Amino acid sequence: MLLSKPRLIRGGVRTETHKQPTAACPLEPLHPPGPLYVSLSQHIGAPALPAVRPGDTVAKGQRLGTPEQGLSAAVHAPTSGRVAAITRHPAPHPSGLAVTTVVLEPDGEERWADERPEPLTEEAERLEPATISHRAAEAGIVGMGGAAFPAAVKLNSPRPVDTLILNGGECEPYLTCDDRLMRERAAGIVDGGRLMARALGARRTAIGVEDNKPEAIHALRQAAASLGGAEVVPVPSLWPQGSEKHLIYTLTGREVPAGALAADIGVVAHNVGTAYAVHRAVRQGRPLISRPVTIGGGAVATPTNLEAPLGTPFRTLLHQAGGLRETPARVLAGGPMMGPIVPLEAALAKGTNGVIALTRSEIREAEGRPCIRCGRCVDACPMGLMPFEIANRAAAGDIDGAAASGLMDCLTCGSCAYVCPSARPLVQLFHYARGQRAERAAAKERTELQRRMAEQRAERQRREQERKKAAAAARRRQRAAHAQGGAEQAQGGAEAEPQDTGAEGSPPDAAPSGEETVS
Amino acid sequence: MYTAILVLTAMAVAIGLLLAVASQYLKSPPDETAEAIEQVLPGTNCGQCGLPGCSVGARAAADGEIPVDFCPPGGRAVAEEIARITGRPMAPASDDGIRRVARVTREDLCTGCLKCIKACPTDAVIGAPKQIHGVLPEACSGCEACIEVCATGAIEMVPEPITLANWRWPRPMEENDRAA
């Protein structure tokens, strides 16, 4: 049941929004002339496998990467052109590591592929649920609010889902691209929501939008009134209202249990941008090849909103926004609360909702002074945790203790670090502790793998030994039989023993030969 | 003759019974600690600890003859497990914590002789005769057996390549750390 009145979440912080510079900037389509760096790992899960070769000519919307087995997503050409190389290029990831990337040189023709999926114009209710999730997978759609989880997997929920929530929270400061999308393309979002609800079998759809975006709420309400199927609910403007768990609680009153998924309580939440991408995939047969993105921050000359092709380097995006006014203290992919610091060479990915270049005055260098036990982080934590406790344990290397204090329930939303008067690097400590935990699990798995491989090798060697023994025995018997036969012939015996040695035992060649191969 | 047969049979039965009873009551107690340690060891018998095989190492660790972090391929994870089993404290990490794996760094020197493939206790080296071999980093225990047998020096130990899957956040610095 949807609540008539949204519930207020616990904790959270009211940040300065910094949304004014870009809230009035419409989404401008961008066609960069330079090469696009289309990464094959823009999503959670295994990287896509290259489907093109260097030198190939590709059309717009043609597949560049095929999804790997299991959790993965397809990648498509954002424009027509030539594949200049398949190389390694920095990813918009906190590590800044290079990942396999298709470098595409646009020919400027924007020529679409001949074979595109048929646009489906039927009412959402007339379409098969499987068709919709299949289209979403085909189009390579992933969560566009930042998580980049393959959307088709979430649309194929094995559990019954009664409520679909579209997340129009956009509570990160500086970012306004979802706001613009909701204002300009409300009908597409509402239609996408209907398609998703159909795929999930959800009876109700609620779009949660922060109440600092009245134009978006108005536009969505108008679209919902004419298309039907969705309820638009204004929610308080508070960080982290756009967190999946918190938006679900605000709109339905249901809490996602620790360690569980939203689908476990019958709810699935998707970003409004994802809904729009599903609308385009079904209604226009268009894969996910561009996305709305806010270019902002004090170091940018003219902050703006763009609809940019995936793979546009951040440097090009910043150039499009009038270039940099001054050397930024840091450049973030996403908002300032959770966005990672990224290199300028990295390129726009499916989950990148902002490129924010901050000046020195806009950031706080974390000096990390000692904790004074003021407890403000506890008040601010929207998950009801004690951040200082988790951080202290993490800093002391007590990873199990940190996990026992709720490390894995943390959203890494940064509310605690935002209010900390000692400017402790709390979120970094949480990330560090999670990394160490993951490392331990990986080491254990690796030891298991090596143990298994060693055992299998020993087993194989034992079998080989036995086979050799059997073969030697067979040879001995053969020789013995020969010798016997020879002796009888020498004696002039008329009845020679039948030469049956071939049937006796198994000759070496008859043994299964599959084990000979080198692993 | 029958007497002799009877006497010998009786003796055999008596001694057999005696041995059976003795083995029941006088057997050395099974070393549960050593068995538990052997369970967490990689079981490749690589010999990097300087002992002949994992079960010998497990017994030595259970008896407290060697430190809990005696197993180099097991790394910190295995050392922590052994510390938990034996109840002995973890020594501070003696290495930089970076896992090293074998890698065919000089592909021009690899003759495809298969020697390293035969030497590898975990089948981590792949390849075919007269083809350049390769090492699967996740299956490599770091025992260096392949390096010892390589006639051309084509294989070297290198830090495990960092990917998005095994990259971890570094520990952030705080004022306390800087003072220390």
Report on the architecture of this protein.
The complex is a heterodimer of chains A (519) and B (180). Chain A is an alpha/beta fold and 519 residues long. Among the domains of chain A are: 206 residues, Rossmann fold, CATH 3.40.50; 100 residues, Fumarate Reductase Iron-sulfur Protein, Chain B, domain 2 (Orthogonal Bundle), CATH 1.10.1060. In chain A, 34% of the residues lie in helices and 16% in strands. In chain A, the strands form 4 sheets. In chain A, strands 1-14-13-16-15 form a 5-stranded mixed β-sheet. In chain A, strand 5 and strand 6 form a beta hairpin. With 180 residues, chain B is mainly α. Among the domains of chain B are: 55 residues, Electron transport complex subunit B, putative Fe-S cluster (3-methyladenine DNA Glycosylase II, Chain A, domain 3), CATH 1.10.15; 60 residues, Alpha-Beta Plaits. In chain B, 39% of the residues lie in helices and 8% in strands. In chain B, helix 2 packs antiparallel against helix 4. Chain B is flat, with a radius of gyration of 25 Å. The mean pLDDT of chain B is 87.
Given as residue ranges, the uncertain stretches of chain B (5+ residues, pLDDT < 50) are none
- Mean of all residue-level pLDDT scores of chain A: 90
Helical content of chain A (DSSP H or I, runs of 4+) = 25-40%
CATH topology of the domain at 128-333 in chain A: Rossmann fold
Oligomer: heterodimer
Question: Widest sheet of chain A: strand order?
Answer: 1-14-13-16-15
Overall pLDDT metric of chain B:
87
Going by CATH, the architecture of the domain at 100-159 in chain B would be 2-Layer Sandwich
Question: At the first level of CATH, what is the class of the domain at 128-333 in chain A?
Answer: Alpha Beta
Query: What is the CATH level 1 assignment of the domain at 100-159 in chain B?
Result: Alpha Beta
Distance between the termini of chain A: 56 Å
Q: How many helical stretches of chain A?
A: 14
Q: Calculate the terminal CA-CA distance of chain B, rounded to whole Å.
A: 90 Å
Strand content range of chain A: 15-25%
- What order do the SSEs of chain B take from the amino end to the carboxyl end, as H and E? HHHHEHEEHEH
What is the structural class of chain B?
Answer: mainly alpha
Low-confidence runs of at least 5 consecutive residues of chain A: 493-519
Strand order of the largest sheet of chain B: 1-4
User: What is the approximate shape of chain B?
Assistant: flat
